[in-house]
Amino acid sequence: MIQKTYDDMWAVFCSKLEKGQCEMDLNIGNKDDTRRGVTALAYLESNNKSVVNEIEHFLKQVQQIEPEQYYHPTNELHLTILSIITCIAGFKLTDINTTEYVKVFNQVFNGIDSIEIEFKGITASSSCVVIQGFPVDSSLNILRDRLRKNFKASGLRSSIDSRYKITTAHVSVIRFYTPIKDIDNVKVLFQKYRNYNFGTVKLTKIEFVFNNWYQNLSITEKIANYSIQERVRAYK
Q1: Which of 138, 161, 172, 202 is the most buried (most CB within 10 A)?
Q2: What is the reported pLDDT for 9?
Q3: Confidence label for 236 from pLDDT (cuts 50, 70 and 90)
Q4: H or E stretch at 211
Q5: DSSP string for 125-187
Q6: CA nearest to 143, candidates 121, 112, 166
Q7: Among 143, 124, 127, CA closest to 135
Q8: Count of alpha carbons within 13 Å of 198, Cβ hemisphere only?
Q9: What is the end-to-end Cα distance of the chain in Å, rounded?
């Protein structure tokens, strides 16, 4: 199922690339972009540095061909567990009672020892390039379903699955900021990495954050974090 989603994305991307129809994200770097949300996520760097190094090597090669695109900094690479409040313009952290949100976040980890993801291959949409992730068991789905159920039952403000129901385990790494100029070399490099094995990450550190659309660390505020087999720690 996940592979079919990635393959469908790839087919659309290849068609858009050939026609020069990739979508530009012109909000990148826009200081007036006030879109903010609340997300449960896991940063790759704090869970497995070697996989991050593999991704960084790939990004440097793409950057040599297409230097004007937006490349997510390696310390910001993350897997979204679930968006609790999808980014909307004007939303502020003071609009919610974070203590109540942490209580719900704290309820979902019982019985989950770790979440293991195999990162193998790349795919792309019309607007970005992602590393394909494949959960090795059902732990990620269990955690997502618990978050959905508990937050919906809590009555707290949320917009879970309002854009789409997340089913994959991808990591966004490149966003298109300008038209792709060297289409031929991009195609060759992307095909080389289409099934490349970046490695496996065992996610044991999950964070609960207030974020902007691009998950920039300069804007992100940590609400709480969870180290599996340790207690949840709230940030004051």
Answers
A1: 172
A2: 96
A3: very low
A4: strand 205-212
A5: -SSEEEEEEEESSSHHHHHHHHHHHHHHHHT----TTSS-------EEEEE--S--S-HHHHH
A6: 112
A7: 143
A8: 29
A9: 41
**pLDDT value, residue 219:** 96
Assess contact for 117 and 169: CB atoms under 8 A. Answer: yes
Strands of the sheet containing 35-43, edge to edge, are 78-89, 35-43, 205-212, 221-227, 232-234
pLDDT in the model for residue 15: 94
2-234 CATH, one of 1.20.900.10, 3.40.190.10, 3.90.1140.10, 3.10.180.10: 3.90.1140.10
Token code pair at residue 40:
């449960």
**Across 62-77, average pLDDT:** 97
Q: For the chain, which residues make up each domain, given as ranges?
A: 2-234
CB 52 within 8 A of CB 45: yes
Task: State how far the Cα of 41 lies from the Cα of 73, in Å rounded to an integer.
Answer: 16
The radius of gyration of the chain's CA atoms, rounded to the nearest angstrom, is 18
* 69 neighbors 178 (Cβ within 8 angstroms): yes
